[in-house]
């Protein structure tokens, strides 16, 4: 666990700067925040229910219910005004604006139609003349560049995942006769033992032909000699995710399997070298993709090269052919090329890394040498 204290006030100030650049900036009275990870980023609250309001004058209001009355005393940033109530959104906006009404920005990208309808009904009942306007992405934009506290926590989440992977391999728990589900359960247990608060996504263990399914899960298929096994896993530590993929062999592998592994590893190294402050995300994707295409497997690498990692395991920026983003110092991203041969098997190799002034700092550090277990 990190011993440093996040600078929540600076985070909130960055969001207000982003909001000020909105075309409606002169009219906004504040931003209503309902996404729990956005709330955590701005206030420190890690619970599962609540709402926050970031007023244009810099004040911040938070509401949750009685289940979290004690939790907010220890978690919430002292600069946040708190109310314990059953009506989260209405309470924070009313606390900030009183009865005068106003224009409230909402993070519509994180709201369902039902939730938006509920908000409108709630504020109509208050009769305060509140108007909503879409204002999505302002918190996420601030979240993209990680501060030193966040980097420390993400590095710990990666270390936890590394420790668990090493324990799994050394215990001989990836072996013929075991099911994908058993391997996933053991890996998740090792992550818990190493200090994970949970998994950052459902662990993927794709053996044999299942390894050709990029977003497979972990089923009841037994591992057999000659399989490639794709294992994609991540730990959550203090709210932050890690993301890592390793591919191993069960017993001796064939030449075609070793070939696609070496091509993927070469692409992963090339993509990693392209993760440079100021370079385009598209170019990083292209660099890795070219390696796979030149080896004759271009049609079998369909997904993007990578994505941002933070409070969510998938964040901006995306490293893809459609990306218009530029990599920036402080981005934490994945590089995860793969080759997937339908009905036969696949390989993916993935690391989480920090964009720096020079070469990226790779945070997932277990060996990528091909293991034939």
UniProtKB/TrEMBL annotation:
Keywords: Aminopeptidase, Hydrolase, Metal-binding, Protease. The keyword Ligase does not apply. The keyword Metal-binding applies. Residues 153-357 form the Peptidase M24 domain. This is Aminopeptidase P family protein. CDD domains: APP-like. GO terms for molecular function: aminopeptidase activity; metal ion binding; metalloexopeptidase activity.
């Amino acid at each position: 666990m990190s011993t440093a204290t996040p600078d929540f006030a600076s985070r909130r100030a960055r969001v207000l700067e982003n909001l000020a650049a909105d075309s409606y900036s002169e009219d906004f009275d504040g931003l209503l925040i309902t996404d729990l990870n956005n709330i955590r980023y701005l206030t420190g609250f890690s619970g599962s229910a609540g709402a926050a309001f970031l007023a244009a004058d810099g004040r911040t209001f938070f509401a949750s219910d009685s289940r979290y009355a004690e939790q907010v005393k220890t978690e919430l940033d002292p600069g946040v005004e708190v109310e314990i109530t059953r009506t989260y959104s209405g309470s924070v906006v009313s606390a900030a604006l009183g009865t005068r009404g106003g224009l409230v920005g909402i993070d519509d990208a994180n709201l369902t139609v039902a939730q938006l309808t509920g908000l409108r009904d709630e504020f109509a009942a208050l009769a305060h003349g509140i108007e909503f306007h879409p204002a999505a992405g302002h918190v996420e934009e601030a979240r993209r560049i990680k501060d030193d506290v966040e980097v420390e926590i993400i590095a710990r989440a990666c270390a936890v995942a590394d420790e668990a992977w090493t324990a799994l391999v050394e215990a001989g728990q990836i072996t013929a006769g075991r099911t994908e589900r058993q391997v996933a359960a053991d890996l998740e247990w090792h992550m818990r033992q190493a200090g994970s608060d949970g998994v950052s996504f459902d662990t993927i263990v794709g053996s044999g032909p299942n390894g050709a399914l990029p977003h497979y899960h972990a089923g009841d298929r037994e591992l057999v000699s000659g399989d490639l096994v794709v294992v994609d896993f991540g730990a959550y530590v203090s709210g932050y995710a890690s993301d890592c993929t390793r591919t191993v062999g069960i017993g001796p592998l064939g030449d075609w399997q070793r070939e696609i592994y070496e091509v993927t590893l070469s692409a992963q190294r090339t993509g990693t070298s392209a993760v440079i402050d100021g370079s385009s995300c598209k170019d990083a994707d292209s660099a890795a993709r070219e390696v796979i295409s030149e080896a004759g497997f271009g049609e079998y690498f369909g997904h993007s090269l990578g994505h941002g990692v933070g409070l969510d395991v998938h964040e901006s920026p995306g490293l893809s052919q459609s990306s218009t983003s530029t990599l920036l110092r402080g981005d934490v991203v994945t590089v995860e090329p793969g080759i997937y041969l339908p009905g036969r098997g696949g390989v993916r190799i993935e690391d989480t890394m920090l964009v720096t002034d020079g070469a990226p700092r790779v945070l997932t550090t277990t060996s990528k040498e091909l293991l034939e277990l």
